[in-house]
Input
Amino acid sequence: MIPKINTLSGYLYEYQKSVTNPEAFWENIAQSFYWRKKWDKVLEWDFVNLDVKWFVNGKLNITENIFEKNLFIFGDKPAIVWEPNNPSEPGVTLTYRQLYEKVCQFANVLVQNGVKKGDRVCIYMPMVPEAAVAMLACARIGAVHSVVFAGFSANSLADRINDAEVRVVLTSDGNFRGPKSIPVKAVVDEALESCPLVDRVIVLKRTSMAVTMKPGRDVWWHDAVRGVPADNKATEMDAEDNLFVLYTSGSTGKPKGVVHTTGGYMVYTAYTFANVFQYDSDDVYFCTADVGWVTGHSYIVYGPLLNGATVVMFEGVPNYPGVDRFWDIIEKHKVTHFYTAPTALRSLMGYGTEPIERHDLRSLKVLGSVGEPINEEAWQWYYTHVGKGNCPIVDTWWQTETGGIMVSPIAGVTPTKPAYATLPLPGVQLMIVDNEGNELKGNNVEGNLCIKFPWPGMLRTTYGDHQRCINTYFATYKGLYFTGDGVKRDADGYYRILGRVDDVINVSGHRLGTAEVENAINSHPLVLESAVVGFPHDVKGQGIYAYVVLDAASKTHDPEKIKDSLLAAVTKVIGPIAKPDKIQVVSGLPKTRSGKIMRRILRKIAEGDATSLGDTSTLLDPGVVQEIIGGALVRVKA
Ligand code: WTA
Output
C-alpha cells in the first residue's frame, strides 16, 4: 500500500522527513511496488550537467505494477469506464482483467510488427480506451510511447514523428467531437508524406468514415489483433529506461520531447495520486484531460491505474449534447473525484447554475483543478455550485516536465485558499529567486519559481538533445530547475502561481510558445514578420494577440481574406488551438537598436494598458509604438 497522509500534522511530519532524508523517504514509498530486482542506490544527481537517476539498477515493468501485482485483489473491478462522445451510444467498461488482456494482446501485436524495446511508437488517437491500451502495451514491451494530441496538424505531427525517429504509428479513422466527425487518418497520411521512417500504421475503426489504406503500410486494428493471444510476459526494464516522450512548447524553437523514465515516474505519479486526491477503493475518478497531454498520462492512465482506481474516460466535449454534459456524467457514473481545467469551468459558468441543478452531484467528494491559474471567481463557483461547499478543491500545480503534481493541497488535509496551490508535496523543495538568481527567503515574496532538489517524477532529458534540456531548465539559475512560472509566497507561506514569466502562453490550459505561433504566421507568403503575445482572456485564461507586418503586395488583397488565410496558416502549421484571437496589422514592430523585439511593450498594449509602457527610449523608432496604440485591430471571432 502506498503510504497516505491523512492529517495536517502528518503532512508536516512527512514533508520534514522528505527534506531531511529524501532517499529514505522515497525508498520507503518505492517499497510498495513490485520490483523484479531492488535498486542498489536510491538517488544519484547533478543539476549542473543534468544527470539524475532514481532507484539505480532497480528492475521492473510498470504494467506489472498495474496488473500482475493487483489482479488477484481487484481483477473484476472496473479500471476504465468509457463515456462516448454521444451519450446515446453504449459506453464501455473494462475491468482490470479485461484491460490486462487487451494490453497483453496489443503488446504481442506490437512485437509482431517488429517493435522492440527502446523503439518509439507514436500514438495519435481520440479519447477511446484503445489509446490507454496502446500506451500500456508499449510500456509492457519497453517501447517508448510518444502520444501526440489528435488536434495537432499534420505538420506538427510530422515534426514530432521525425524528431523521435518513430517507425510505427497508432491512430484511428476519425474522431467524434461534439456534433462533428473529424478526420484523423487523413491527417496522419498527410504527415507521413514527410516521415520516411514510418513503415507501419495501425488504424482503429471509430467513426467508420472513409479512409485510404496504403497497402503494405496500413493495417486495421481489428485485423491486427485477430487471433493474437492475450498473454504476454512483461519486458524487464531498468528504473532509468525511457517510458515515454511527450512534446511540449517552450520559449524558443520547436517543441521539445520531454523524456520520462520508468521507476521514478511510477513511484511519483502513484504517490501523488493517492495522496492529493485521497482516493479510496470504492471511489470513481473522472479526469477530463486528453491523453495527448501530460495530465492524461499521469492522472488518467498511470497514477490512477497504479492505485487500482476506477477511471472515467470521456471522449467528448463539455457542451455536447448539452452544456450539462460533465454534470450528467458525474451523476450517471456516481463520480467521487472530478479533475478538470479552469478554462472549462469558466466557459460553463457562463450558462449559470441551472444546468448543474438538473443533476444529482451528491457522489462528489473531491474537486481538482489543473493546467493554468484558477481565478478566484471560478474557484468560488466550483466550490459553491459544483461541490455544494462540501468538497475540497485541490488546485494542482505541475508541468509536463515535473511528471506529476508538485504544489497542491492534500484533499481534506490542507486548508485551502482560493487561487492558491497552497503547499509543496513531500519531496518537493521549492525556491523563489529574483531575476539575478538570489533566493527570496521568508514570506510575502514574489519571484521566479525554481526547484532545488530532484524528485522521482522529474524529466531526465529532452529527446535527442540533452544540451537543450540543460539550457532550457538548468542554465537560467545555476544548480536549480527553473519552472518558467512566476510565484508568490504569502504571509501564511502559501504559494500562488502567477503564470509564465517566459515566452510561453497558456491558452485554455494548452501551452504554446510565442515563437512557434510566430513561425506559423510567418509561413504566410504576405507576412514579413510578426510578434505574438498573450493577453488576459475571460474564458481561455490567456488569448493570443498577433502583431503582423505585411508585405507591400498585401495592399491589393482584401484584408478580411488575409486575416482568414493567416488563421488557416496557423491551423495548418500547428492546429486550431493556436489560432490568434486578435490580429493587428502594423507597419513595424518596436525594436531595440540591436534588433530585439520589445515584447514587454507589445504585451502592455495587448493588455489595454498603454499608459504605462515604461522606458521606450532605447527603441529604434519610438513612433512605431504610437502608431500601434492608435491602430485598428482586426478582431477574430473565437
Ligand atoms: C501552468 C500541465 C497555475 C503553469 C499539468 C505551468 C498552472 C504550465 C497550474 C504547465 C496551476 C499548470 N496553477 N498554473 N494549478 N497547473 N499550470 O506542461 O504555467 O501542459 O508551467 O502541464 O501550466 O503546463 P503543462
The chain has a mean pLDDT of 96. Residues 248, 293-295, 369-373, 395-400, 421, 483-485, 497, 499-500, 506, 511 surround WTA (CB under 6 Å). The longest strand covers residues 527-537. The domain at 508-637 is CATH 3.30.300.30 (GMP Synthetase; Chain A, domain 3).
